[in-house]
Amino acid sequence: MSFKQELLNFISDAGVFIPRIEFPYDYLRRIRKATYYGTLRRLEQDKLIVREKTRKGISYRITDNGRLLLKKPIVPKKRKDGFSTIVIFDIPEHKRKARNALRKFLLQNGFRSLQKSVYMSRNKTPGSIIELTRELDLVSNVSVIGGKIEYYL
Q1: CB of 50 within 8 A of CB of 60?
Q2: How far apart are CA 151 and CA 153, in angstroms?
Q3: Which residues pair with 20 in a beta bridge?
Q4: For the domain 83-148, what is the CATH code?
Q5: b/e for 10-28, b at 16 or more Cβ within 10 A?
Q6: What is the mean pLDDT of each run of 10 residues along the chain (153 residues)?
Q7: How high is the pLDDT of residue 37?
Q8: Terminal Cα-to-Cα distance of the chain (whole angstroms)
Q9: Beta-bridge partners for 115
Q10: What pLDDT is recorded for position 92?
Q11: I need a surface site. Which of 57, 87, 98, 100 has the fewest CB within 10 A?
Q12: Which of 53, 74, 55, 54 lies closest to 9 in space, CA to CA?
């Protein structure tokens, strides 16, 4: 599940979301503020959430469009052509939070760890991998490779 979907899920569960309150999910606590508030802004622009001014400050509520989007299940699609996707990354230590978020995202989307920084999946690659690497500012540190791989073990 992408950060955008996690945030939308949380707003849906909470009913009203006030950004100053810390996020309950571990890996989301590690994401930069710019990514966090940028995602809120994009959700608002896509009309999935609406911003409201209250006495306590700014809060967000999910819209009907947001609820409809959450109802669509994301099911990994198995490839039948024998191709696989490999994600390789070398993320510096000062971006540790983003690295951990990427690892968790890959595992949640059906990738298996071959090494600490190499993940593989036989499923079709969701476009959200590229979106997530942009949100986390990791484009120069992540490579996504697709190709036919013969498995011997």
Answers
A1: yes
A2: 6
A3: none
A4: 3.30.70.240
A5: ebbeeeebeeeeebebebb
A6: 75 74 55 79 88 84 80 68 89 86 80 91 77 81 86 63
A7: 82
A8: 29
A9: 118
A10: 92
A11: 57
A12: 74
Q: Tell me the whole-structure pTM to 2 decimals.
A: 0.53
Specify the CATH number for 3-71; select among 1.20.1260.10, 3.65.10.10, 1.10.10.10, 3.40.1190.20. 1.10.10.10
Q: Encoding tokens for residue 76?
A: 């990994």
Q: Tokens standing for 43?
A: 């959700």
Element (H, E) at 143: strand 142-148
**How far apart, in whole angstroms, are the C-alpha atoms of residue 73 and residue 30?**
26
Instruction: Label the pairing between strands 118-121 and 112-115.
Output: antiparallel
Burial of 109 (0-12, 13-18, 19+ CB in 10 A): buried
Domains 3-71 and 83-148 share a fold: no
